[in-house]
Write a structure and sequence with these properties.
Blueprint (H helix, E strand, L loop, with lengths): L5 H7 L9 E8 L3 E2 L11 E9 L2 E8 L2 H5 L8 E5 L2 E4 L16 E9 L7 E5 L20 H4 L7 E11 L3 E4 L7 E10 L7 E6 L4 H4 L7 E10 L11 E4 L5 E2 L13 H11 L3 H6 L2 E2 L16
Parallel strand pairs: 4-7, 9-16, 12-14
Antiparallel strand pairs: 1-3, 1-5, 2-3, 3-4, 5-8, 6-7, 9-11, 9-13, 10-11, 11-12, 13-14, 13-15
Length: about 300
């Protein structure tokens, strides 16, 4: 059928009610958001953002309500979608923005694709990767992998992807979202090494919408974390408290989940796999730790500073 592109949509969306089908690749995926409130009687108050792209650029796509439980787990980073009967809305200005792997990619920030059960009822089709044709001009998923030796030179809030061998994983902890609120964030600390430095990556992993992965991070697994943010304590000794934390678009993968993921083609990932082949499992096992209390960043040495 006749297709349109994201670039054409941006130019013509105000003058149309019905839009031609779209063919896009998913480049980023946010965590699932629950926005239910006691006074609002919505059956499935869920929402999820995806960044999708075609040959003309990248745009946000929003999955609403009951489409979330139906489609959220099937739509992965790298998935190619055919979208029919969708709506176009003005963008929500305060949403988080992932850092694209391809810095040259054009963004269309003013509008977003809205997928709903009705008004109009969206039709979503997943195109299997083996049926995707090169002439469609869909961009490949690109990453920004860094090694541990490169981390010390990166600025605060820099976005990156990492791969490492887990040597420590802490227990799940909770932090209040707001000071007196009832809601909590769930997170755990992990250390991962990649052979490029004596120091590990220190990772603050918040529970994303992947409970099956979050609960099974354990020592000796190969851990991939995407869209992580660098956190530096800029006040005291900056090098001692550098760590990485998850963002709204972070995805986490462990051994058993890597097959078929787009990052397996990345050079730094291949280099890491080569390094692991040179390591003896028994030697690494001796250095691994699990559970326990992990105070980080460490409190100051005396109470006056504290």
């Amino acid at each position: 059928s006749k297709l349109t592109s994201l670039g054409q949509l941006e130019m013509t969306w105000r003058s149309r009610v019905h839009f031609h089908p779209l063919l896009v690749r998913v480049l980023h995926k946010s965590r699932l958001r629950y926005y239910g409130k006691p006074e609002k009687k919505l059956d499935m108050p869920y929402q999820a953002y995806f960044e999708v792209a075609d040959g003309s650029g990248m745009m946000s796509m929003v999955l609403w309500n009951s489409l979330c439980p139906e489609w959220y787990n099937s739509i992965k980073v790298g998935t190619v979608l055919l979208l029919e009967q969708y709506a176009i809305k003005t963008s929500y200005p305060f949403k988080t923005q992932p850092t694209p792997g391809d810095s040259q990619m054009k963004r269309f920030p003013t509008i977003e694709i809205s997928l709903n059960v009705r008004d109009p009822p969206t039709k979503i089709s997943i195109i299997p990767e083996e049926m995707v044709k090169p002439e469609w001009g869909l961009p490949e998923v690109k990453y920004r992998f860094i090694t541990r030796s490169e981390l010390d030179d990166l600025p605060n809030n820099h976005s990156c992807d990492v791969i490492g061998l887990v040597t420590f994983v802490g227990r799940a902890e909770r932090a209040r979202k707001r000071e007196h609120g009832e809601d909590f964030w769930l997170y755990r600390w992990a250390h991962a090494i990649d052979g490029t430095s004596d120091q590990p990556f220190i990772l603050e992993l918040f529970a994303t919408s992947q409970p099956d992965v979050f609960e099974h991070i354990h020592p000796m697994t190969y851990l991939v974390c995407t869209q992580m943010r660098v956190v530096r304590d800029l006040t005291e000794n900056p090098s001692s408290t550098i760590y990485l934390t998850t963002s709204n678009e972070s995805q986490i993968f462990i051994t058993g989940w890597h097959k078929g993921q787009p990052y397996t083609k990345d050079t730094k990932v291949k280099n890491f796999i080569q390094w692991t082949k040179t390591q003896r499992e028994a030697d690494q096992m001796k250095k691994t730790v699990i559970g326990g209390y992990y105070p980080f960043p460490r409190p100051p040495n005396n109470f006056l500073k504290y």
